[in-house]
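Hey, I was hoping to borrow your eyes for a little while. I've been staring at a protein lately and its backbone has me curious. You're getting the sequence in one-letter code plus the fold written as tokens. Would you mind checking whether the tokens look sensible for this chain? Here's the protein in full, and shout if anything looks odd to you:
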Amino acid sequence: MATMILLDAGDTRLRIALDSGRAPRTVAALLASLPAEIDLHCAKIAGNHILWHAPFVVDAEATGDVMQVPPGGFLFWPERQFLELVFDALQAESAQVTHLGGIEAGVDALRALGRRVQERQGRDGLRARLSLAAGGTGTPSPPATAPPGLAALVAAREAVWRAPPAEIAEMMARRGVMLPAGPLVYAEGYARALHETLWRLRGEAAAGDHAFAARAGVLALRLAVARIGGFCHLLASAATLEAAAALLERHPALAAPVIDEAILFSGRLAAWLDGRIAWHDFTEATRRAAAEWKG
């Protein structure tokens, strides 16, 4: 019998059946994270799925092409730690994802929720709750013990998962030429690029090349510090990334846990920033500008 979880978003409740046999490690990590308060995001490329960020890093597991996931399908994109529900036909995208199962009933309620997320992101705090259905058997993970020197980074990661950094609200209140839109969009992009770079370096660390992963990680983190801190003025977040770089520089043998913590920190930072971008309105404005283009 499939394990069932519930997604509650306002007056919408979706029952999601998990395929533990296909992806046991991913499902175990998901169940261990429940219950969870999540924020819903719209997809920007493939279009018709809603997504939220998972608070765990899990290797790719029995992956397949995202374009093969049908409406109603539930998936995990390990490269970005996204959990996603597909609600309609997808637009062209290339990504390898882990298929985790699907919703129990039809997709009408899911589709309505998906349209609302697309139209309202950046205007509403689109919050939801993910929990184990009655009778489920999730097993909480035991508390992890941080290696020496890693505790401060763990604390920063836990803090950014509890609430958005106050400096994001300060950014949104800034006024001037192209403010706050410019720093907001670029900071989200820089955080996302760092996240994806660190995911690839995680593979190098897992293969045993800690020295290379540490050196490359320091470069990637310090570039992000220069952009997120220097350009976009998210100084506290940049300080956390600099601390991760310094830790890698001093202790290359800690590459694997440091990179995992930095992945989760930068990914959640990107999520908080992404949630403030009104993508529907931005797309409509871009279409209008394209129609008027005289270049």
